[in-house]
Design a protein that fits this description.
By secondary structure, this protein is an alpha/beta fold. 41% of the residues lie in helices and 13% in strands.
């Protein structure tokens, strides 16, 4: 969907109705029709992101680019009832611009707040916390993917819990073609906050082939790789098919993070009817019932992970039972339901702004 423009080149929002607010967004959401029919996509930014995907860009150039787009978003937003963005830097800059420069802000919802504070020295952590705090206070809501993240972020950043809202995430297979196979190997994939050393230690010496798909090989530096583990870099389509052809999908996540991540991976596997094993201590329980629709183990617990893997690989009946329950459970976490929930939050924020 293109952003309509007026004769002077400035973006012009579509007409609002009493039922639906005018929403400007930077998020394509996989081209989902139920989403794009309700929003106006900032098409130029979406095109630029697609063109720059995977390219190396200098930090100074990237910072300048983010400020330019944040300012454009700020100027354009005045013609809309609400703005929906991700939690990337330009979106946070937009929120800070609203906080500093507007007395009456346009309701702004972060569709997925994925920020962590860890890393760096004490000073850099203080600066990052301050930046994130201002970014949250400049917006109406930050949607998170786990219930525990609401209180965790509020305490860490020193902001009211009401600024955060849990909206369950969704599978992201969209229109990617794949076919389900009853494979003979363990699959694991993704890069964000992954704990592959624990997974590799857990499968070492087991008679099961393990395939790990990652874009960055830095996860595996200094690891003595066992013969039953293969590390590959795959395209999106091949990644999805590798998951669909596996016996079990394992998602090992590092512990003690505000946003551990991994939801997309295990939800895609669940939607395929695959048994999933998740090593995570925050939000997995919001999506998976341990022992019924998947197996949950503490992060970093190699022995518990090894036991869970052996249980599924050595007991086909258990794997089938977990996979069937997972697929039923995944029906609650579709992209359409997610978009409906997000739009409901946006309408709530617009209503609050109109009443204030």
């Amino acid at each position: 969907m293109l952003v309509p423009t007026s004769s002077n080149g400035r973006s012009k929002a579509p007409e609002a109705t009493s039922e639906f607010p005018r929403i400007l967004t930077t998020y394509r959401k996989g081209g989902l029709s139920s989403w794009l029919e309700r929003v106006v996509l900032l098409e130029d930014l979406d095109t630029e992101v697609a063109q720059q995907w995977g390219k190396h860009v200098g930090s100074a150039h990237q910072l300048r680019r983010d400020w330019i787009w944040a300012w454009r978003l700020f100027r354009m937003s005045r013609d809309f009832d609400a703005v929906v963005t991700g939690s990337d830097r330009l979106s946070r800059m937009f929120a800070i611009l609203q906080r500093v420069l507007r007395r009456r802000r346009v309701p702004h919802v972060y569709i997925d707040w994925l920020c962590n504070v860890e890393g760096g020295n004490r000073f850099s952590r203080i600066v990052r916390c301050a930046h994130l705090r201002w970014s949250v206070l400049g917006a109406s809501r930050a949607l998170v993917q786990g219930k525990a993240e609401v209180s965790g972020y509020a305490a860490e950043l020193g902001v009211p819990t009401a600024r955060f809202q849990f909206v369950p995430y969704h599978s992201t297979i969209y229109t990617t073609p794949f076919h389900i196979e009853a494979g003979d190997y363990i699959f694991s994939g993704g890069d964000g906050n992954r704990d592959y050393p624990s997974l590799i230690a857990a499968v070492r010496g087991l008679p099961f082939r393990t395939k790990i798909a990652a874009l960055s090989f830095e996860h595996f530096v200094s690891i003595d790789m066992p013969q039953n583990v293969e590390v590959v870099r795959l395209s999106q389509g091949d990644y999805i098919q590798a998951m669909a052809s596996s016996r079990v999908v394992v998602v090992p996540i590092r512990g003690e993070l505000l946003h551990p991540g991994g939801q997309q991976t295990w939800l895609n596997a669940m939607a395929m009817g695959k048994p999933v094993i998740v090593a995570e201590d925050q939000s997995a329980r919001d999506y998976i019932e341990d022992g019924v629709s998947g197996l949950l183990v503490p992060p970093g617990d190699v022995e518990a992970l090894r036991h869970a893997i052996k249980s599924v690989m050595e007991n086909p009946g258990l794997g089938c039972s977990l996979g069937r329950a997972a697929q039923i459970r995944a029906a609650s976490f579709t992209p359409e339901r997610f978009c409906d929930r997000v739009l409901s939050v946006v309408e709530e924020c617009v209503g609050e702004a109109r009443r204030s």
